[in-house]
Amino acid sequence: MHSVIFSGNCRYKLIFASMSRYLALMMLLCGLAACKMPVPQYQRIETMPSNAWSYNNKPKFTFNIKDTTGRYVPYFIVRHTQGYPYCNMWVLFYIKTPGDTLGKRERINITMAESSGKWLGKGMGEIYEERVKINFGDSVKLNKAGTYEIVLEQNMRIDPLPEVMQIGLRVEDQSVHGKR
């Protein structure tokens, strides 16, 4: 029988080769995961004072679209605590598209919890984030080049709306995401 004796130098080479393969695999997996994540055309989050969204706090989001061949999709973002007292949130969207002198208004119901009370968004501890795709229907399309302006206003029966930490707007070019 022959026994194999590894010198100290050889042992380190085996360990290094094993680690190199592991590192290469991890880099490949991270690269593949990054390809599937949509990159936002625009995203901005506004923090609500005292974790309450009042009627007079109407954040304005301004962004540019240059590529008219893209398929742009807006998302409403809300971060709230588990103490938010409702399962939904009514939001008024005031939208000005490039070249418009008068904007359009859309009232949209954001569903935030199941009827059982389970939050729909992602949560960590007592904080939840909802990212909801917004469909303005045929009244507003994000397909013209230029500057867009969207103002958000909470439209619930209570003022201020408690346990709302942040709200925001995200716009994704889904045609770019689809080509990856």
What topology does this entry show?
Elements: H1 8-36, E1 40-47, E2 52-53, E3 60-65, E4 72-81, E5 88-96, E6 104-111, E7 122-124, E8 127-133, E9 146-154, E10 161-162, E11 164-173, H2 174-179
Antiparallel strand pairs: 1-11, 2-10, 3-9, 4-8, 4-11, 5-6, 5-9, 7-8
Distance between the termini: 56 Å
Strand content: 35-45%
Percent in helix: 10-25%
The side-by-side strand order for the widest beta sheet comes to 1-11-4-8-7
What multimeric state do the chains show? single chain
In short:
By secondary structure, the protein is of the alpha+beta class. The chain is built from two helices and eleven strands.
How would you describe this structure to a colleague?
This protein has 180 residues and is an alpha+beta fold. The chain has two domains: 1-37; 40-179, Jelly Rolls, CATH 2.60.120. It has two helices and eleven strands, in the order H-E-E-E-E-E-E-E-E-E-E-E-H. It has helices at 8-36, 174-179, and strands spanning 40-47, 52-53, 60-65, 72-81, 88-96, 104-111, 122-124, 127-133, 146-154, 161-162, 164-173. The strands form three sheets. It has a five-stranded antiparallel sheet with strand order 1-11-4-8-7. A hairpin with a 2-residue loop joins strand 7 (122-124) and strand 8. It is globular. It starts with 7 loop residues before the first helix and ends with a helix. The model has no long low-confidence stretch (mean pLDDT 85).
